[in-house]
């Protein structure tokens, strides 16, 4: 299924690959970097801990979980705002600006969906003060009936997938408070901001963050899968050699359709790093599959 929120880092096309690798755990699905939620919603787990530092994502999904945000309410909202958008000056841009300014004051989850679905290229980006920072897609008829129905259906589907508390628990914390919650029975899927790539208010990511993530995942008793990038036409992700080559790695070419700058639009080789054997995976096409023996690793690092 496809969630109602959009973002440039959305893993929709990679979900089958991730789930093919993921062993069926007895315990919970733990996702410290939830983003749009597409991986968790397709994971099939009855118990989950889902987290993101972006409060708008968590408020939206908690609102659905608690029955405060519903498909009929979303339809009503989108019909109303869509009508105003279609009639607004500057080819709809006047109303987009109005909703954006309102969101940046009040942070309504409905306005969050409006902006996510009427913003340029389905991108999500927040400025220095945490303000929504994406221009209009320039389609005044964006919320025509078919599109409104599509979004409403996505809200309806998500509301059936999200389990009530305490089976599914949402948090708005740093990943470092979430990973230690995992037990041996759980599986952790991490999709952090990619080091050296896209940055915004909720997506700062330094080598220290990567090191902390590495330390926490090295210590966990749970199984984990980490999404990261392996290389592109220009360069390699230096974090692989620095940290992740101690674990098993599988790779796959992936094309990101949206993104601000030209480099982010090109094909990138995606990697899944895991702390268990990846023998079941068919789709693997670059780099090494087995972890580097530690003797060889220390030679490579010197
Ligand atoms: C690459 S996106 C995840 C995309 C997601 N897998 C999807 O398919 O939509 C990374 C997410 O991590 C969140 N994030 C960034 N820094 C974080 C941190 N320190 N702790 C927890 N979440 C963080 C961002 O807000 C963003 O939603």
UniProtKB/TrEMBL annotation:
It catalyses: a 2'-deoxyadenosine in DNA + S-adenosyl-L-methionine = an N(6)-methyl-2'-deoxyadenosine in DNA + S-adenosyl-L-homocysteine + H(+). Its EC number is 2.1.1.72. SUPFAM superfamilies: S-adenosyl-L-methionine-dependent methyltransferases. One of its GO terms (biological process) is methylation. The keyword Isomerase does not apply. Pfam families: MethyltransfD12. InterPro entries: Ade_MeTrfase_dom_2, DNA_methylase_N6_adenine_CS, M_m6A_EcoRV, MeTrfase_D12, SAM-dependent_MTases_sf. Keywords: Methyltransferase, S-adenosyl-L-methionine, Transferase. It comes from the Bacteria. It is an enzyme of class 2 (transferase). One of its GO terms (molecular function) is S-adenosyl-L-methionine binding. PROSITE patterns: N6_MTASE. NCBIfam families: dam (TIGR00571). Belongs to the N(4)/N(6)-methyltransferase family. This is Site-specific DNA-methyltransferase (adenine-specific). It comes from Niabella soli DSM 19437.
